[in-house]
């Protein structure tokens, strides 16, 4: 029976270890992670965990005893520093060398740093792990001023959580709209409205020159137009970059993330990669490849690799999806608006309940649903089954969405 070594004990790594046992893999499984905690979910770090509504224990994917009970050798606080594909071994920072039959790289991504003057002042945070969330939480005293650099999902979710804690929040976004990389303009406008209604100041189209401080502590952010945004703390939320260095040094193809196929194979036949670190195909969208940073993508890839390793037929490809919670808004996105030639609004923004359907011809390629879970669910099915629809019926909310199907 094969020894499976998994590098990175995060969402993808933890899921694949458990799934291999579920699929009756009998051989050794070693799961190595550089963090102190057993695999846990990150989404609450910017939401309920930051607000202090849930504890660390509830973040864990499995209780600590699960790993011993299922003969998964979980090595925590251990970083892998090198992979040698020729001898099929990994070298840990501790000096330990481990041989594998199959290696799964699940090293995730890290927060992109902002290398501007003053970046090392106290009071500047990024958010990727529990330790980051705890440090940020300690800084969020009621009435203190938090500047958030980057109006992406992490930045906006932290803005909503910080408002719930009574913090004064300013979001600084370089683009002309928030969520520019990941959502349509209608959604950007909606989220700007909602955040402003909750007292968040949002400045778009601004460039940051540097952080300013006093006695080593952050006091403000200087913009290129000369303005100084006074603040006590800042969160840098400008995206993530893949932890691909060990794979690159091992000679694996890494064109911005570790390149994998549908079954998550890398360019080495004995090495797979899953989760945020991968540059992956989206089989429902032709030959398109990209990095997808979401829990559903990590789980889908964990399923693919576990099936491949135990010799089961590959599960069908899934529609990529994502969610975000801010205030009482539930955003759910199914699919990717690649090649869309029209988008249609169903519902109205003023009701706080609407969806944007992105179509290519008479096929749905993506749905962005605000507090509209049924639209999201049906949209996901339409994308997966490539069902043609009657576009003209989509914006007629007097008719159930099902009636848009031929
Ligand atoms: P990770 O969970 O990051 O795990 C990778 C692990 O590998 C880490 O523990 C890392 O320390 C470890 N590691 C790296 N290098 C090494 C090494 N050399 N040796 C040993 N260990 C190593 N997704 C959603 O779908 N919805 C959301 O609402 C959402 N909210 C999010 C909010 C926040 C604040 C963050 C940070 C992420 C959020 N995500 C969300 C994204 C989601 O958490 C990730 O897509 C998911 O965690 C990816 O899993 P992963 O295992 O690939 O990476």
Automatic annotation (TrEMBL):
<dbReference type="InterPro" id="IPR016156">
    <property type="entry name" value="FAD/NAD-linked_Rdtase_dimer_sf"/>
</dbReference>
<keyword id="KW-0285">Flavoprotein</keyword>
<feature type="domain" description="FAD/NAD(P)-binding">
    <location>
        <begin position="3"/>
        <end position="302"/>
    </location>
</feature>
<dbReference type="Pfam" id="PF14759">
    <property type="entry name" value="Reductase_C"/>
</dbReference>
<dbReference type="Pfam" id="PF07992">
    <property type="entry name" value="Pyr_redox_2"/>
</dbReference>
<dbReference type="GO" id="GO:0016651">
    <property type="term" value="F:oxidoreductase activity, acting on NAD(P)H"/>
</dbReference>
<dbReference type="GO" id="GO:0005737">
    <property type="term" value="C:cytoplasm"/>
</dbReference>
<dbReference type="InterPro" id="IPR036188">
    <property type="entry name" value="FAD/NAD-bd_sf"/>
</dbReference>
<feature type="domain" description="Reductase C-terminal">
    <location>
        <begin position="321"/>
        <end position="404"/>
    </location>
</feature>
<keyword id="KW-0274">FAD</keyword>
<dbReference type="InterPro" id="IPR028202">
    <property type="entry name" value="Reductase_C"/>
</dbReference>
<protein>
    <submittedName>
        <fullName>FAD-dependent oxidoreductase</fullName>
    </submittedName>
</protein>
<dbReference type="InterPro" id="IPR050446">
    <property type="entry name" value="FAD-oxidoreductase/Apoptosis"/>
</dbReference>
<dbReference type="InterPro" id="IPR023753">
    <property type="entry name" value="FAD/NAD-binding_dom"/>
</dbReference>
<keyword id="KW-0560">Oxidoreductase</keyword>
